[in-house]
Structure formats: structure tokens, C-alpha cells
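Postdoc handover notes: sequence design on the structure in folder B. Input C-alpha cells:
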């Protein structure tokens, strides 16, 4: 039994009063927060809702008058947020679908036993608590918005990407933009032109909102400048705090922005006054010292004594005692500079290290001015503690070295070019890519390093970044050692190169080039595979329809007439369908890339392929040319090579055997590449036992003569059949193309796929005898 927090008022609507009362008793027993009231129908329940307040409704589905769904729809019209659970004995997908469409909170089917009430009690409590949580969250959000609208400071909220998602009415006074205009920007939008108080751009990682986002810690009084749309510069003091999601992660940052421009301006005026009145520094936190030339006595101000770790009035001594406080490595240079200032009666201005009373090293900047009065000649010096400044300089040097190490050890090519296209910097990855040294790249342009077409493209992209002041991401091609490589280049504007800067106009472009050559090749291969699938689907749907219709018609005739002779037609149609399916599967497999190749004897491969064709082919004769008595070895995947040869030989037998008799053929001149005077293998098909006969004996009887031979860069298969008309040669290798009534149309398509997978090319021309000649080129001879 559950017992927590406030009571939950539940209205249970069911047309069976006994069941409703029983359910109420069990529900209140399971959860003592529940206070259950019952209604016997929808109309009664709606009246109760008008007169009382309930936290949740449990309703039956099958009730007289209005059904549970109709009741749900009526409730949603008046009480759209009120949780309603459908608790019904009539369960079906249709009921559940209707309930969900009508906006039901939960759906539960009645079952035997009392466990169902435990489940129902839990569902009720969960639904009520979910609604209360949502209501409370909305209430808090509304309250926060009202508070933010009335506070005197500019308050903004930024998401994880630095996008403004809220700004109160003070935004126009502090940021120079309306509330809606602010939401169109990000915190690091280049149009803000964010700078530190020294005028330097602030790296994104050091922006106040980014620090809060990354550390999850509040930040106070971070100061930087921005520019209004009209060009006015403003100085902001930023306080930021993180907002966390349910998992404890920072989901956004709330900042208050205070315009302290007037304060900055006053500080500048004060600094100028301090520069002009250097001697009036005793009342400030700046240390002052006086050195009497005649007595050699040195007096330190209380502030300077404190800065050096002494109690007020504790230090007393001469200039030599001061030198004892200066770091040993700096003493000689400081002494020489002071002596020179005394001799020339000029101002001393220097920076050096000092060791305080605790033994800690500090950096000081001292400016001394000689002054004469009636009694003595003094040098009055102003001392500034610049330890933090020096530490920042050291930290920056460390960061610079780290950045340089990162750039140099990153394999991805990176570069920087000025606004004239000359390289200012390239990293190791870029030098590795081009094979050039720094001195061969820096100071040059792409026009001096790459082909003109490539340089034109890259320079156009660089100009787009410089002119718009916006980053771009684009694809570019580079030709390296004759190979065309595809890169995804990200280019961003640079306003300060370290040697040249302009706060308004980019002076350089920094780029990162990711090699996506392999990705694009994979995409192209994937597209080819998609095209093949589409081709398969089209051909199969077309070519299977005809034999399927024949089989269906024959089957209907066999059923109605009882004539079993129709079964033969069905068998023929099914054989036709099976061959189409087998060829489609084979065609799909042959399009895959070749994984392993080995030296293969062309003569042996042709003989093995012919043996397979001879088992079911019509009459035909195979011969090797005179010039190929020697064996030829090529590099190939042997099983696929056999399939290619089988399909070419079968094509010649099936289509070439229709030729008209031409009489005895005693061979062809060597120039043709296809003489048949040498018959290494001659096979006659068509009888119960295949018998061998000579080429001359085969001529003139309607059989086809096939010649296989080697050519430069490959081999050919030719026949003396009817050949292929020129207007049909372009479509000859398309899947589904066939001139035979019983052909699947995939044989030559498979040949094309196997050749492509090997990296070969296949073409068809007219043979010396007027038949078809298929040439396979691009073959590597072993």
C-alpha cells in the first residue's frame, strides 16, 4: 500500500455499480492517497465534473449512452489536461487506437483477480504526478519569465551552442538590439566583434558563456567589448550561471550583462591623468621609492614595502640594499641602466625581477624621474607589480607552443593564407600531403603550386570567406602526383595573424582539409549498387510476369479440362522463371568487387568453360587461333572468369547457330586475328553422345564456329553467326536484353558485371566472318 503527500481525488465511471464500488475499495486500500467517487454513466460523470474538482478519471469503455471514447472526447473539450485512464473489459487494437487518437492518458484492460487494482492504482498515481509536475514546471517557467522581464539588468539565456533563446527588455539598452533581434544571434557572432579590454579577439573557449558551459561553475565580472549595429563600442561586465537538466548536465547558461562603458571611459581618463602626473601616486596602491643621490639613502612607500613583504617602516637602507632585492640575473643590467639615467639626467624605465622578504620572485616595472630641489637631487620612481602580467605572458607562450605542437602533429592538412592568397603557414599534414617543404609553400600561392583550374577554385572559395567574413565548408579537388583527391575544406576568416590585424576586415583565411576521396568513391559505388537493384527490380517484375501468366493460364485449363498436357506448359514456364531468378542472383553477385586474384591459364579456362556449355548447348565448334598455340596466363578470379567465358560461349552457341550455311571455311587471314585453320578443341553437340569433328566438316551444317584468341591488353571471343546490329550494341549488355524467346536477358549483363568487377572493359564488334566479336581489354597478363 502506498501512502505519500496529498490526497488524489479520483472519479471512477462504470455502468456496473457493484464493480465500481469494489474497485474503489481496492484502490483506496492500495493507495491511501486515493479518494474514489463513482458515476454509473458518462452524463452523470460530466455533471460531477462541473460541480467538483478531480485529479483523475478512470472510465469503462462499453457503457449505455455515451461510450468510453465519446466520454473521453467530451472531457477533452472542457478539461484538456485532466488525466483519463480507460479501464475496460473490451480490449482490442481498434479500441486502443481510438482511445489514443482521442487523447487518452493510459489504457488498461480489466482482468480476473485483484492484482489489476494494484496496477491501476500505480497508473493513476503516475498520471496525476506527471500532470502536477508539468503544471509546476510551467508555473515556474512563467514566474521566471516575469521576473526576468522586470529586473533592471539585461538578462539573457543561451543554449549549448551559444544561441540566445531569451532576452529581457533591457537588451535594447545594453546590446543595441530588440529582444527578437538578439534571438537571431549567437554569443560569438562575428558581428559582435568581441574583444578583450586591450582590443584583442577572445578565443571561443575563453568566452564567458563557454567557460560556464564547460566548467559548470558560475562566473562573475568577466569583461569584454562588443559593437552595436551602428558601430558603437560598449564594454560589458558579464556574470554567468549554469542551468542543469535532469541528468545534471549543463543545458544552458543565464547571464546578466551590465554596460560599464562609462566606467571604462572614466578609467581611461584616470589612466591618462596618472601618466601625466606620475609623481602623485603616493595615495594609490602603486609603490613609490625615493633615492637621494648624495646620501645614497632609499625610502620605500608603505605600499611598496607591503608589496615586497616588509612591514611598514621596516625597510631602511641604501641603493645597495635595493640591489640585494633584485634577482641576481637582473642586477647588472638594472645597475647599468640606472647609472646611465643618472649620467644623462634622463628617465629610467625598466622591468626586472625582485625577491621579496618571503623569498618569492616578483616582477616589477619601475619608472624613475630625476628631480632637483634646493637641498638635494632625487630620483623618484614608481613601481608596478607586473607578476600576473608576466605569468599571463608565460602562459600564453605555453599555449602557443602547445598549439604549435598540436598543429604540427595533426595529420589533417591545415593552412593559413593572407588576403592575396599567399601561404603564411602550413602544418606537417599539409607538407606530407603535397610532398613539399615549408620554404617551397610559404610565400607562394595555389597558382604556383597546383594546376590553374584547381587554383581558380580554391582562390574563389578563399575570397568568399574574406569578403563575407563568414566560415564556409566546401569540397575542393587537389591533384597530387597526378592523382585527383577530393577534400572537404573548412575555411574561416582570420582578423589577426600576429603580424597583421584588422578588427573589421579579415586579413587571412585559415583552413582544414579532410581527405574524403575514399568516402566519395564509396558513395559512388553505393549509388551504382542502388542503380543495379533498381535495374534488377524492373527487369524481374517485367520478365517474370509473362511465364507466370502462362503458368496460371495452363493451370486453369488443366483444372477445367482435366487435360494433363497443359502440365508440360506449366513446367516450361516454371523452368523459364527459375532460370531468370538464377541469372538475377548470379548477376547481383558478379557485381561485387574482386577480393583475390591469381594467375589463370586462358586456354584451360576456355576449355573448362566450353565443357560446361557443351553439356546443354546446340551444335557448335570451338577453336583457338594460330597465333595462340602458346598458352596465355592472365590475372583473374578463376570462378568468375569461367562464368564470363561460359556466358560468352553460350551466347555464341544460342544466337550464332541461326546463321545461314556458308560452305567450307578454310580459315581467315592472320590480320583478322580469328583464323580457324587450327582447331585445338572441336565439339559437335546435338546427339546423344557428343562427337568430335573438324572445323571444315562443321561448316555449312547450321552450327556455329567460335574462335578464342589473345589481343593486346586482353582476349576476344568471336563467332560466325548473324552478329549484332550496330543500333543494338549499346543496349546489348543491359539486364533483360535478349533476342531469344527463351533467353533470360542476363547472360551478357553478367559478362559486363564480371568484367567491371575485375577492372576490365568489354565491347562488341563485327567478327571477320560477319558474326559477333566480344573483346575483353584492360586485362593484366601474368
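Designed sequence:
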Amino acid at each position: 500500500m502506498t501512502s505519500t503527500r496529498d490526497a488524489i481525488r479520483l472519479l471512477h465511471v462504470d455502468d456496473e455499480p457493484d464493480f465500481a464500488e469494489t474497485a474503489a475499495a481496492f484502490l483506496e486500500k492500495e493507495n491511501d492517497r486515493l479518494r474514489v467517487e463513482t458515476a454509473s454513466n458518462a452524463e452523470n460523470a460530466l455533471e460531477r465534473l462541473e460541480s467538483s474538482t478531480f485529479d483523475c478519471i478512470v472510465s469503462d469503455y462499453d457503457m449505455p449512452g455515451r461510450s468510453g471514447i465519446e466520454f473521453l472526447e467530451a472531457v477533452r473539450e472542457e478539461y484538456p489536461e485532466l488525466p483519463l485512464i480507460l479501464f475496460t473489459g473490451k480490449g482490442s487494437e481498434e479500441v486502443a487506437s481510438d482511445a489514443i487518437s482521442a487523447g487518452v492518458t493510459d489504457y488498461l484492460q480489466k482482468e480476473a483477480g485483484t492484482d489489476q487494482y494494484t496496477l491501476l492504482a500505480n497508473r493513476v498515481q503516475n498520471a496525476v504526478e506527471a500532470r502536477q509536475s508539468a503544471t509546476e514546471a510551467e508555473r515556474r517557467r512563467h514566474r521566471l519569465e516575469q521576473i526576468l522581464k522586470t529586473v533592471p539588468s539585461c538578462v539573457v539565456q543561451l543554449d549549448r551552442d551559444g544561441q540566445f533563446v531569451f532576452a529581457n527588455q533591457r537588451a535594447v539598452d545594453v546590446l543595441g538590439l530588440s529582444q527578437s533581434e538578439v534571438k537571431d544571434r549567437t554569443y560569438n557572432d562575428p558581428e559582435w566583434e568581441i574583444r578583450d579590454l586591450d582590443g584583442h579577439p577572445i578565443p571561443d573557449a575563453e568566452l564567458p558563456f563557454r567557460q560556464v558551459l564547460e566548467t559548470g561553475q558560475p562566473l562573475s565580472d568577466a569583461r569584454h567589448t562588443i559593437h552595436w549595429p551602428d558601430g558603437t563600442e560598449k564594454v560589458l561586465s558579464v556574470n554567468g550561471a549554469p542551468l542543469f537538466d535532469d541528468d545534471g548536465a549543463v543545458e544552458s547558461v543565464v547571464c546578466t550583462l551590465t554596460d560599464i562603458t562609462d566606467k571604462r571611459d572614466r578609467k581611461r581618463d584616470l589612466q591618462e591623468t596618472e601618466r601625466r602626473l606620475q609623481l602623485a601616486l603616493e595615495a594609490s596602491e602603486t609603490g613609490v621609492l625615493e633615492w637621494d643621490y648624495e646620501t645614497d639613502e632609499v625610502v620605500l612607500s608603505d605600499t611598496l614595502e607591503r608589496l615586497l613583504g616588509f612591514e611598514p617602516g621596516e625597510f631602511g637602507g641604501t641603493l645597495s640594499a635595493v640591489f640585494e632585492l633584485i634577482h641576481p640575473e637582473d642586477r647588472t643590467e638594472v645597475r647599468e641602466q640606472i647609472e646611465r639615467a643618472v649620467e644623462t639626467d634622463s628617465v629610467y624605465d625598466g622591468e626586472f625581477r625582485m625577491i621579496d622578504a618571503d623569498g618569492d620572485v616578483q616582477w616589477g616595472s619601475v619608472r624613475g624621474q630625476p628631480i632637483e630641489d634646493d637641498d638635494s637631487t632625487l630620483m623618484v620612481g614608481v613601481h608596478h607589480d607586473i607578476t600576473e602580467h608576466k605569468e599571463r605572458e608565460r602562459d600564453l607562450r605555453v599555449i602557443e607552443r602547445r598549439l604549435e605542437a598540436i598543429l604540427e602533429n595533426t595529420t589533417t592538412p591545415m593552412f593559413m593564407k593572407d588576403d592575396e592568397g599567399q601561404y603564411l603557414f602550413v602544418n606537417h599534414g599539409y607538407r606530407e600531403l603535397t610532398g613539399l617543404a615549408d620554404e617551397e609553400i610559404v610565400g607562394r600561392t595555389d597558382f604556383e603550386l597546383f594546376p590553374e583550374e584547381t587554383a581558380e577554385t580554391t582562390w574563389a572559395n578563399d575570397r568568399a570567406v574574406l569578403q563575407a567574413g563568414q566560415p564556409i565548408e566546401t569540397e575542393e579537388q587537389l591533384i597530387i602526383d597526378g592523382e585527383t583527391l577530393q577534400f572537404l575544406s573548412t575555411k574561416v576568416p582570420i582578423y589577426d595573424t600576429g603580424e597583421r590585424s584588422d578588427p573589421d576586415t579579415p586579413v587571412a583565411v585559415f583552413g582544414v582539409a579532410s581527405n574524403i576521396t575514399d568516402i566519395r568513391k564509396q558513395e559512388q559505388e553505393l549509388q551504382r549498387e542502388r542503380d543495379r537493384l533498381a535495374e534488377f527490380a524492373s527487369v524481374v517484375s517485367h520478365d517474370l510476369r509473362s511465364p507466370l501468366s502462362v503458368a496460371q493460364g495452363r493451370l486453369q485449363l488443366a483444372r477445367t479440362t482435366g487435360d494433363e498436357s497443359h502440365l508440360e506448359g506449366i513446367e516450361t514456364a516454371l523452368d523459364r522463371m527459375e532460370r531468370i531468378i538464377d541469372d538475377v542472383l548470379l548477376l547481383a553477385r558478379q557485381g561485387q568487387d574482386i577480393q583475390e586474384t591469381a594467375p589463370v591459364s586462358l586456354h584451360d579456362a576456355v576449355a573448362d568453360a566450353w565443357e560446361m556449355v557443351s553439356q546443354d548447348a546446340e551444335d557448335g565448334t570451338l577453336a583457338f587461333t594460330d597465333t595462340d598455340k602458346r598458352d596465355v596466363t592472365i590475372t583473374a578470379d578463376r570462378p568468375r572468369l569461367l562464368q564470363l567465358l561460359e556466358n560468352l560461349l553460350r551466347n555464341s552457341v544460342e544466337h550464332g547457330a541461326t546463321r545461314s550455311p556458308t560452305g567450307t571455311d578454310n580459315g581467315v587471314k592472320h590480320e583478322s586475328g580469328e583464323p580457324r585453320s587450327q582447331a585445338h578443341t572441336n565439339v559437335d553437340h546435338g546427339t546423344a553422345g557428343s562427337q568430335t569433328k573438324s572445323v571444315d566438316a562443321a561448316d555449312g551444317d547450321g552450327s556455329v564456329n567460335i574462335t578464342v584468341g589473345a589481343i593486346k591488353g586482353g582476349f576476344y571471343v568471336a563467332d560466325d553467326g548473324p552478329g549484332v546490329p550496330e543500333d543494338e550494341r549499346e543496349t546489348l549488355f543491359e539486364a533483360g536484353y535478349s533476342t531469344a524467346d527463351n533467353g533470360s536477358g542476363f547472360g551478357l549483363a553478367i559478362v559486363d558485371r564480371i568484367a567491371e568487377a575485375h577492372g576490365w572493359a568489354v565491347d562488341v564488334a563485327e567478327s571477320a566472318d560477319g558474326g559477333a566479336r566480344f573483346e575483353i581489354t584492360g586485362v593484366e597478363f601474368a
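Context for whoever picks this up: The two ends are 84 Å apart (CA to CA). Don't rerun without checking with the PI first.
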